[in-house]
């Protein structure tokens, strides 16, 4: 089984406090604990968050070097970052794009994603449950 790296971008460290009507009440720590429990001790999970675009690019490089599959919620960098796109283009493992909210029901600037063109699949609109749905996709291949 390949390692799974779950990479989170800006403001996702504020889950639980941040616009709970959109993003829910769960914290990122809650979500990480559920993902770790789902994977169990035999799998390798790396769960990371950064508010910095460059650090997110480095996380992607490190996922590739580890031979990992990636679940990425790039937050606002989804809609702006060619650097994140270019890093994901180098991934040989699978890439799942994830959003808590259904970005297509929100402001027009959230409708375009740089990541979608390199994603193997996209999960959005299921809140925190989306992380587990993304893991199921990677674990049942
Ligand atoms: C998270 C963010 O931080 C936003 O910038 C995106 C995404 C949506 C989410 O739904 O998880 O537009």
Describe, in plain words, how this protein is organized in 3D.
With about 140 residues, the protein is α/β, with parallel strands linked by helices. A 5-stranded parallel beta sheet has the order 2-1-3-4-5, sandwiched between helices. β3, α4 and β4 form a beta-alpha-beta unit. It is globular and about 40 Å long. The chain starts with a strand and ends with a helix. The model has no long low-confidence stretch (mean pLDDT about 95). 3-dehydroshikimate (DHK) binds next to loops.
Summarize the structure.
The chain has 141 residues and is of the alpha/beta class.
Sheet with most strands? 5 strands, parallel
Small ligands present: 3-dehydroshikimate
* General form: globular
As a percent range, the share of helical residues equals: 25-40%
Mean pLDDT: 97
Number of strands: 5
Order of helices and strands: EHHEHEHEEH
Distance between the termini: 10 Å
Q: Report the sheet-strand fraction.
A: 15-25%
Q: Structural class given helices, strands, pairing?
A: alpha/beta
The number of helical elements comes to: 5
Low-confidence stretches: none
Strand order of the largest sheet: 2-1-3-4-5
From the alpha-carbon coordinates, what is the Rg to the nearest angstrom?
Answer: 14 Å
């Amino acid at each position: 089984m390949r390692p799974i790296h779950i990479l989170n971008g800006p403001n996702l460290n504020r889950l639980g406090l941040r616009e709970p009507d959109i993003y829910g009440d769960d914290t990122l720590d809650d979500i990480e604990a559920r993902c770790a429990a789902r994977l169990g001790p035999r799998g390798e999970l790396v769960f990371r968050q950064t508010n910095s675009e460059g650090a997110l690019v480095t996380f992607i490089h490190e996922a590739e070097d580890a031979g990992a599959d990636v679940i990425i919620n790039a937050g606002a960098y989804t809609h702006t970052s060619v650097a994140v796109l270019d890093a994901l283009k180098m991934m040989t493992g699978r890439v799942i794009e994830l959003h808590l909210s259904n970005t297509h029901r929100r402001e027009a600037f959230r409708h375009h994603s740089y990541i979608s063109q390199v994603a193997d699949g996209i999960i959005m609109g299921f809140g925190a449950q989306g992380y587990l749905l993304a893991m199921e996709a990677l674990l049942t291949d």
